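Lecture 7 notes: from sequence to structure.
We start with the chain below.
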Amino acid sequence: MNRLTPALAALSLALLSTTAAAQEPALEKVAAAALEGDTHAWDFVEGITTEVGPRQAGTEAEARGRAWAVQWLKAKGFANVADEPFMMDTWVPGDIARARVTAPFAQDLEVLPLGNSAATPVGGIEAEMVFFRTVEELRAAPEGSLKGKIAYVSHQMRPAQDGSHYGFAGPARWVGPGIASSKGAVGIVIKSIGTDHHRNPHTGGTSFPAGVAAIPAGALSLPDAENLERMFARAGGKPIRLKLEMNPRQLGQTRSGNVVGEITGANPMLPPVLLACHIDSWWNAPGAFDDGTGCAIISAAALNVKQAGQPLRTIRVLMAGAEETGLWGSKAYSEAHLDEAIAVGIESDFGADRVWRFDSNFRESNPALHKRIASAVARFGVSSGTDVATGGADLNIVRDQKGALIDLQQDGLRYFDLHHTPDDTLDKIDPVQLRQNVAVWTMVVGILANEANSILTGGPIRSAPPIMQGQ
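Predicted structure tokens for the same chain:
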């Protein structure tokens, strides 16, 4: 086996670093062009939403989405394109979702089942409702106090640029159904975890702890939830009764998969840069924002870096399957590739509005690289943050390896108007803001892919925040 002497290795590294530095003007030129007229990202998101549409995890529709993405990556010149299969527990929503207040103010409410909800008996259930203003009030309810009743849980989520109110309100969906079941409830409806005022319920995943039976669990549109709360206020102590009918079901184990592709680097000995998104969506929308644009942005950035010249490191895109119903693809990818070192991971999964802040988990341990990236993206209106990056939902492998992470924070002020609703459609994407994402990602990925030195030097690793433990 031929081995470089330490001196030759050092010289080789220096030459690679010089080559990388020489590529930066070309990288800046490509990023500037992307800001004005990138077409790769729009081509991806327009194509997958038009030709495939909704891509519920573990179903034939998601399989079509993966096949479409494989063909797109191959047509664009990515190498090592593959659909890596894994098995998952698959839930589907059924075709019935009805909610009606039967007394004292009879009227229909708009409802959708939550992921992993149980079905009602044929014909539905009807029971008295119990109102909880927060999930903490539900937690405090006495054991057995909800026997034979339907719980209703509210919240006061508000728009926030960083999306932080999702973590505040989300537990009503994430854990509320399990808590209600443990206290004897026969069903639960929640105020949708969202910020819009359309009659579009927001679906999303929930879970039931071991030993706790799954019950019918639905989300009401925000206007209907607020109407229901007015009913409670004016009922004068009379019970509010709700009839709920839904027919979701568990299919057992079905196949999903992770779509991967690469822009090959000049030095195969250097660990790759991993760019992640998720290919699935909920059944009720074509998933333009969540997460068609994420896959579009990372792919476009990889192609732009290639246009600036072959990078030192390989750039790998990971379009994870089955994220929405439990991070199945992220977990499967880590299990399959954990022994393959990753240099740094970045994910796009928060819509397509402009990137406004850059965070890393190596700000203190590798300040020169953090500062270099911050300087490069400042021209696009991106500030340098002080938070420790935790990475997106599909970057389990990087967290498991205790590796380098970057968060390119997108403006979330309108994201939760669309999240998990039928409104998550192509027309909601602002092409100008989408191009800004691509330009920022091009600069960041280009710098990282041409970094010859180790990126993470003992930086902190934190677990993903609760909102990333399941969508």
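Points to note: The domain at 10-91+252-468 is CATH 3.40.630.10 (Aminopeptidase). Confidence is low (pLDDT under 50) at residues 1-15, 466-470.
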